[in-house]
Specification:
This protein is α/β, with parallel strands linked by helices. Helices cover 39% and strands 14% of the residues. Strands 1, 2, 3, 4, 5, 6, 7, 8, 9 and 10 form a ten-stranded parallel sheet that branches. Helix 8 packs parallel to helix 9. The radius of gyration is 19 Å and the shape is globular. The two termini are 23 Å apart. The relative contact order is 0.17. Bound molecules: S-adenosylmethionine (SAM), 6-(5-methyl-2-OXO-imidazolidin-4-yl)-hexanoic acid (DTB) and iron/sulfur cluster. The site of S-adenosylmethionine has 18 residues, from loops. Iron/sulfur cluster binds next to loops.
């Protein structure tokens, strides 16, 4: 069936010249107008009833030298987390196999490193090759990278690299003191230049202002190329971390952040990331309506709990949503 000229909505062109005032105006729109706009944009690029699912595995846990105020894996905070060295490859591949059986299309390996050592990279490359051989997409998040490490990951077949900007540059230094915003941008540029897809987003609910959220979105959307994947995390408060006890963000501000990410980066996957365990079905449905079309799937994020897979499949059934590229797709 041909689409008549009248009904054809050409995709909006991608912009990289957003102004802060525009982003703030979007975040402050009447809620119904904002969600309608985001869903309208969403439909120009994506099937609205389809969601991509990635499973996470912490391949190296805790004892991290960085001081990220939100993170249970920093060695500086007493979070009662049991540190674990880099996992043997067979255990990683077992976890990937289980994730695939449950319907995940991408497997994301996270390590609590400021930056990997060169000898670690070879072990991660072996993991990437093993996971790819199972027919899944691969993602890794290992901290800051050198040019050579980035090239080795690319040559090993890595599809995505996750490295979050987390918040605005101003608020960043209140949350992390052991690296700079520029360090993050440098690694992101290396990943982009090497031809690896970029997964980059942030955390909300850390006590930042709406202006900080606007600035984070501005940084992401004004990168030379939009990240292919944009995780928006709601802070998971963990006992022992400096951000434990932060005043809860109004959930509707979280939905607004998702909607504006969708409008500014219309062709990117916006991931409703950490924090879903504390969200109702209705809240998650609102996030999907606002343009989120990806989740972390499986009972654990890195160290904290996520909804169990069967619960997410029930939610998707209730919403008539299919998982991209999954045996559970229909
Ligand atoms: N060490 C590497 C790094 O920092 O890039 C990779 C792992 S680190 C745990 C990956 C991301 O997890 C962080 O950038 C942050 O956005 C997110 N994260 C960590 N702790 C979190 C928490 N308590 N709540 C929400 N997101 C969190
Ligand atoms: C991302 O943006 N969120 C994920 C993933 N990328 C690596 C991590 C969330 C971690 C939440 C806290 C934890 O489980 O340790
Ligand atoms: Fe380390 Fe990453 Fe946690 Fe920061 S977020 S403390 S770098 S594991």
């Amino acid at each position: 069936m041909s689409v008549s000229q009248e009904n054809f909505n050409p995709p909006l062109s991608l912009r990289h010249d957003w102004l802060l005032q525009e982003v703030e105006a979007l975040l402050q729109m009447p809620f119904n107008d904002l969600v309608f706009k985001a869903q309208t944009v969403h439909r120009q690029y994506f099937d609205p009833n389809e969601i991509q699912v990635s499973s996470l595995l912490s391949i190296k846990t805790g004892s991290c030298s960085e001081d990220c105020g939100y993170c249970p894996q920093s060695a500086r905070y007493n979070t009662e987390l049991e540190p674990e060295a880099l996992m043997p490859i067979d255990e990683v591949l077992d976890a990937a196999k289980k994730a695939k059986q449950q319907g995940a299309s991408r497997f994301c390996m996270g390590a609590a490193w400021r930056q990997p050592k060169d000898r670690d990279i070879q072990r991660v490359v072996d993991m990437i090759e093993g996971v790819k051989a199972m027919g899944m997409e691969t993602c890794a998040t290992l901290g800051m990278l050198t040019d050579e490490q980035t090239r080795k990951l690319k040559d090993g077949g890595l599809d995505y690299y996750n490295h979050n900007l987390d918040t605005s540059e101003e608020f960043y230094s209140e949350v992390i003191t052991t690296r700079t915003y520029q360090d993050r941008l440098d690694t992101l540029a290396r990943v982009r230049d090497a031809g690896i897809n970029v997964c980059c987003g942030g955390i909300v609910g850390m006590g930042e202002s709406q202006a900080d959220r606007a600035k984070l979105l501005l940084e992401l959307a004004n990168l030379p190329k939009h990240p292919e994947s944009v995780p928006i995390n709601m802070l998971v408060q963990v006992e022992g971390t400096p951000l434990m006890g932060t005043e809860q963000l109004d959930p509707l501000q979280f939905v607004r952040t998702i909607a504006v990410a969708r409008i500014m980066m219309p062709a990117s996957r916006v991931r409703l990331s950490a924090g879903r365990n504390a969200m109702s079905d209705e809240m998650q449905a609102l996030c999907f309506l606002a343009g989120a079309n990806s989740i972390f799937y499986g009972e654990k994020l890195l160290t904290t709990d996520n909804p169990v897979a069967v619960k997410d499949r029930q939610l998707f059934d209730k919403l008539g949503v299919a998982m991209t590229g999954s045996p559970y797709a229909d």
